[in-house]
Design brief:
The chain has strands at about 5, 10, 20-25, 25-30, 35-40, 45-50, 50-55, 60-65, 70-75, 80-85, 90, 95-100, 115-120, 125-130, 135, 140-145, 150-155, 160-164. With about 160 residues, it is mainly β. It has two domains: about 1-80, no CATH class; about 85-164. The protein is elongated, with a radius of gyration of 18 Å. The N and C termini lie far apart (about 50 Å).
């Protein structure tokens, strides 16, 4: 795969096994089984190292060394800024990202349980792992489900509107 301009001319010659869209000036590309990132000139900025990557959002991209294994985040230089330890992650929105961890990471959790919370760009929990589901934030709110019910939570993880 490669990239063309609006006239159909190649601006980055086809040399990738798969390629994503540009986000924040970088595009995910796969060579063999591994993903990395190129800039708009086609230069490899982050060498293919990861079995799974997502687009950059607010300067960070989700990555996983094993594809279905734990996910963490890298910055636009490829430096790991949040170690892969989450079973699922969203995209950074409004300075937070929703993350999920399984029962083996949660003290006192019942077997088979997984909970969602939210972390900041340094990997610190802003909202503890307490939700059955948690969406990304928009306009300061995220949709969440818990044992209490479902509704919209603020950036502190408190329900501001709930449907029981």
């Amino acid at each position: 795969m490669g990239y063309i301009d609006h006239t159909g001319e190649f601006v980055i010659e086809p040399r990738f096994d798969n390629a994503g869209s540009f986000a924040e000036g970088l595009a995910a590309v796969r060579m063999g089984d591994l993903w990395g990132f190129i800039d708009r000139t086609g230069q490899m900025v982050i060498k293919p190292t990861w079995a799974y990557v997502d687009d950059f959002s607010e300067g960070l991209a989700a990555v996983s060394p094993g594809g279905d294994g734990p996910a963490g985040f890298i910055d636009t230089t490829g430096r790991v800024v949040i170690e892969p330890r989450f079973t699922d992650v969203g995209d950074f929105q409004e300075g937070l990202v929703n993350v999920k961890m399984g029962d083996d990471e949660l003290p006192g959790a019942t077997p088979g349980s997984e909970r969602w919370g939210a972390i900041d760009p340094e990997g610190r929990f802003v909202i503890p792992l307490r939700f059955a589901s948690l969406s990304g934030f928009r306009y300061g709110l995220a949709f969440a489900r818990s044992e209490e019910g479902s509704g919209w939570v603020n950036r502190s993880g408190e329900f501001v509107w709930m449907d029981r």
